[in-house]
Every structure is written in structure tokens, then in C-alpha cells.
Amino acid sequence: AESAYCAADKAAGGFDLVINNAGFGAFGSFAHTDFAVWEEQLRMMLVNTARLSHAALRGMLVRRHGALVNISSIAAEFGLPYQAAYNMTKAGLYALNESLMYEVKGTGVIVIDFRPGDYRTDFEGSVRRPAQAGADALQTDRMARVWGSFTAMMQSGPPPAQAAADLQAALLRGRSGTVRTGRYFQAVLAPLLARFGSLGVAAGPAFRRLRHRRRHVPRRGDRLRERRAVRRGGVRVGGVGAAGDGRAVRRRGDPVRRSVAVRPGLVRLRRRVPRHRRLLRAGGRPSSVRGRGDAR
What we know:
The chain is of the alpha/beta class. The protein is built from 9 helices and 6 strands. A 4-stranded parallel beta sheet has the order 1-2-3-4, sandwiched between helices. Strands 5-6 form a two-stranded antiparallel ribbon. Helix 2 links the parallel strand 1 and strand 2.
């Protein structure tokens, strides 16, 4: 395939547009299908596509012009059951396209990752269904139900003209990117929901902890109870923060505490004393009680 492309490219004086769309489908249990089927699919749909992309980009980068379109699939994001190698090849093309988009930035060459969903192209009619050696009745029943759903989805998809129009619009924009096409749910809603779903899985436990966490709200009698505890010497200080920033840690149920001065290895509670008492202890008098003859 690579040698044939290079010969045609040389005869034409260089291609401005290259679309990699070769491949085939194979339906069957990964474990019960001869691995040669999966290996052939990986070689044709991933390795050959990467080699042709490599050859095409070399000429385009020299001319500083051109567009490379690699047809991946929505299956790169939402894998199809009993089509494991197909999912692998499309996910590999997705990763290849993401890398190439960055590498060609600012060169005049664009790379488009085109991800179609279900279309009425009779793709299901050309899918290979190899023999399932050793598959039990449960696997056979599951494959039959999945195949029925897959066929119904393909036959009820939009016409191929929609994919051609979406690709043409992407090429006219003249910039690299990912283009999802097909049903509205497959092309728009499903990727959007998947993004929010991944955020919910990652941040769900943290949100649940925050939601169920009861925040201590100071009440009217807290200040009085604190003063009494200070006089008795019973106010607890939770200690220094985990980051060592000197902030006191408050445990649930602890009374509200005053400011804490922290030194390395020392946690000390400073008791607030009214200003006029501090002045009297220092030998002075507050300005509010000074006499007329007092020096200012």
C-alpha cells in the first residue's frame, strides 16, 4: 500500500488531500476467535494507516500545504462488544491523530480526526463472522442479541451524504480538529455526557464528603463556655495543620477557640486581654480615663 501510494503521489506531483478509510469489520468473541483475524485487522486498519499517514505528511510538510483525514470512529470512545480489534484500531487512530494535530501546527498542513457513528452504508453486510471455537451457549446467545442490535442501529442510521457534508465543512474550515458525525445522540450528546460522567466518577467521593460534612456554626452560648474553659485551663487545641502552616485544627464538637500562635514545636493559646487592662499592667492609663493634667 505504501509503495503504491508513493508511486501515485509522485506521478500526480503531490496530493493535497489524503483520506485513509480502508478496513473491515470482524464480529466475534475475542477469546474464541482465531487471533490471526484480530492481527490482520490491526495490521490493515492501524499499521497501514499509520504508514500511509507517514508518507503523506512527508510530502505535505515539504510543500507546506495539504490535509490528512484519518477515518476513526465513535467506537474509539464507546467500544462495541464483540468487535475488540475494531475498537483497538479506532482508539489507536484517535491517539495518532491527536499527536499529529500538535506536530503540524503552524506548518500549513491540517489533520482531521473524522469519527462517524452509525450510517446506512451496509457495513454490517461486509462484517466477517469467524468461527467461535469453544463458545458456550451463554456466549452464543449474547452474540446473537448484540448482533441484532448492531444490525438494527446500522440500518436505521442517517444517509452517507450527511457524513460527506460534515467532512466537506471541516475541510473548508481549514484547521485541524476532531469531527464527530452521525446521529445527534452519538455525535453530540453521548460525548458530552461521557465528559460529565468521568468528572462525576473522579470527584464523586469528594462531593459526597462535602455534602455530608456538618459545619460547626457558633451559637450564642459558645463564647461564654469558651471563657469558662479558658479559666479552667481546659480549652483544647487540635494542633498544627497538616501542611505545617500554623493553623489550628478544629475537631468536631470542640468549642470555638481564640487565635493560636504557633512556633516550631510549640502551640500556645493567647488569651485576649482588654486594651485598658494591658495598659494598666504596663503602668499606663487608658486615654478614656486620663485626667485633664495627664501628659499625652
